[in-house]
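note to self — DONT lose this again. spent like an hour looking for the file last time. sequence + predicted structure for the chain T wanted, 325 res
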Amino acid sequence: MKIIRLKVKNSQIIFPKNHEKNNQGICLAIGNFDGIHLGHQQIINNLYSTAKKNKLASAIMTFEPHPAGFFDSNKINNYYLTTLKQKFNIIKNLGIDYLIIVSFNKNFSEITAENFVKKILQDNLNVKNLIIGYDFTFGKNRQGNFKTLENNNFQLQEINPFKIVKNNSEITCSSSLARSALKSGDIILANQILGRNFSVQGSVIRGQNLANKIGFPTANVRTNIKQIHPKFGVYQSLVTINNSNQKLPAITNFGIKPTVTNNINKPLYETHILNFADDIYDKKIKIELVNFIRDEQKFNDITELSYQIKKDIIKVKNIINSKVI
């Protein structure tokens, strides 16, 4: 998959120097695609099939930083469901040809809907098919919508919301709902919306070595500052080391370690991989959160903490064993 970076400076739309308009045309989907949840996947699958049917290249346009962060600085950090790298890898695996990353800044936010259509979609990208979500808006002051896009020189498709069932009721998959579920500890709902386990990635760092001393060695990871913090607590998890195909059962605590430190500014993922003793310092790992076990809590001493960890591990093992057929 090829990346095309687009930016706007002094009202000028700037594509890479080596960018050439696709004379045959492209099939394009536009959106933030944060999380690439089941609703996003419905759009992307439609994009892929439409491009194949019309013998066009498939492309996704997304924005970095997230426009929400541009308009509200509180949504810059601890917000993203997926980092840009994660987003790239997921979209690549869905078979898309191009990822167009728009640098979202003040200049870009002031482009009118009409100029966006003419100067970007038509003049530079030669869009033949455009696919958008049901709630898509664009252009200065979000004045552009489905009606703005009608009657142009491309075929237009609007994809309906994707719904899932929870407690016998239908709910619409959305990034905001996934964020809310993660913040409340409802990891099962978050994963259901995403269509996969919520995950974080990072290199294993050295900690205080306390967990190892009490018999539960952990792989400690701090992740991208922009990525959302799930609820502090203990989770059943899966760990992948260095992009291997093997997912190792584990138990993960995400939080501030209140029993031993209480560093509220630097929450940490501490993962104990079950029945595992290899040295993985400095290796890159992926942690998938599967089930919420309990809230993070402060214990009176290390002995009490150790006792609770044993109980947590037993609970996780019982969950795993209960799913073995």
